[in-house]
Amino acid sequence: MAAINAYRMDGLGNDFIIIDRRENSIEIKKNKIIELGNRANIGFDQIIFIEKQKEDSYPITIYNSDGGEVSACGNGARCVAYLLSESLNTKKIQIKTNNRLLNAKIVGDFQVELEMGKPLFGSEEIPLSKKIDPRNVVLNINNQTFSEGFCLNVGNPHIIFFGKDYFKHDLKVIGPKIESHGLFPEKTNVTFADVIDKNNIKVSVWERGSGLTKACGTAACATAVASFSKNLTEREVYIAFDQGSLKIEYDSNKNIFMTGPVSKIKKMDISI
Fold it and tell me: Looking at 79, 151, 216, 221, which residue is catalytic?
């Protein structure tokens, strides 16, 4: 086995292994990602590769712990931005995913703001398997009706259900069934959201390909956009997870900004 250098970071408990391959090509096969991602092993929500710089941006490649590649990870992008800012001695970093350019800015001690771009609401953009109103989705799961689901894409697909009653359901049981529902050809992230007031929402998230997660940046963004669109909250809202909150601003130009903490950088070696 070969040992490679890596970094462990997290955003509110949403944890990542980050591997820098700007200079050295490092390949990790899907079965190895799954093995490493298991909590009985190293364990992580996502593994993220930093690719060679292209013009002024730093591409990243993201895999969930189930080995599937994904297009977005808000907390992971914030962690990568902080890691790069430390090595490059700069406060501003541009991250490139396979479908978006994300502008990051270090705004305080271990505080990173990320411009996520604009949400997508079309059935084909989310995507959904049929043309329906994505702002009022009804699903039947385990002989139970889940109504008024709000679907959108913020770099990856999400569905959000608002209301205290949804927290009565076991998201470990319901989450994977909604994630893999036939309406979602690329599967979906699932959020149960309780609006506390016009500027605060409490959430629980089942993350596509990773499972029940301590935090999810794109879910926070999707929830903020959905809640404002439903006239439940203002444009600026705090999304509360178990270990803290992310501030989300959905501005008048329909751009999403996410600000929150990242952990210290922990260097480590992993065997592949």
Answer: 216
